[in-house]
Amino acid sequence: MKIKVLKIVGVATLAILLVLTVFWFSLPLISQQRLGKELSQDLGVPSPAIIAHRGASHLAPESTAPAYKLARDIGADYLEADLQRTKDGVIVVFHDEALKRTSDIETVFPEKAEQPLSEFTYKELKQLDTGGWFNEKFPDQARDSYVGLNILTLDELIDIAESGNNNPGLYLETKFADKYPGIEKDIIEILERRGWIDGKPKFSDPERKVNDKLGVATVNVMERDSRLIFQSFYSHSIEEFNSLAPSVLRVTLISKDIEEKYGWENIIEETVATSDGIGPVGNLALPWRVNKVHKKGLIVHAYTINSPFQMRILHRSGVDGIFTDRPELALEVYDRTNQIELDKIFHNIGY
């Protein structure tokens, strides 16, 4: 009997020690989450922020109208977009430097298929189908309505953001900024004209009842000063945005190669002067690194996060937001939505 009691006491003691150990090691993570949330609140940025990477690009062709309309109506906080400039000076939304991967350029302009986007006029780009490739690569997500989609301009992206029941912000990247001198000024001029900088965009307050019926989150980031965030891997581009539009938030992107070249601490020190946050590739966003960033007063938005496990782990590690191809999944993981009626949303947006 005595031995049995001792065993029970021993097991209970171990259990208590285990609970205390877990609690002890959880304290820094809880503290980081709290600090990150406070920093996000000070900037007016939702936390955790769900940033639709090239739109809802798991469900529709990346950087196209349906991808962004889906992300908007599902309830993403921000629509993320890569910006480049055509040969005749039009700012367009496109990720790659070349056009082959996500268009039919090899059919339309076979002799120019290897050339960068910057060598094409806007009229030429409008002849390309930027949706058909998606049906071939992802047959489970294919839709006839994706065939014949066109490259979007920045103005058209703004139209999408402003025209739905939700009001997401825009998270804009200068892609290949070294190849486009002055692109920051071009972007800012468009955004100022549309009231997104030091003004007020055209939008109506969301109807929560409509969103509740669709099982989606209600978003009104557009009414905040944080409606717009600039991002770039290029420090000179971030500095230019800081100079031309200091009221707009800025995030410096960090790849694994950049971190290996310059070191985490050095990057943070250089970033503090011109940015409000950093955007590291997901496997760099370890708790102790996130903590160092937060202590410098910067927020952390990690990319590109598409699995529930990653989403939960990074949130626990103190990350303040994620870039994701799957905003519908992120909203579910972060308990911000019910069962989303995707078929109804597709019907509503005409795809």
TrEMBL record:
Pfam families: GDPD. Gene3D superfamilies: Phosphatidylinositol (PI) phosphodiesterase. One of its GO terms (molecular function) is phosphoric diester hydrolase activity. It comes from the Bacteria. This is Glycerophosphodiester phosphodiesterase family protein. PANTHER family: GLYCEROPHOSPHODIESTER PHOSPHODIESTERASE, CYTOPLASMIC (PTHR46211:SF1), GLYCEROPHOSPHORYL DIESTER PHOSPHODIESTERASE (PTHR46211). One of its GO terms (biological process) is lipid metabolic process. Residues 48-334 form the GP-PDE domain.
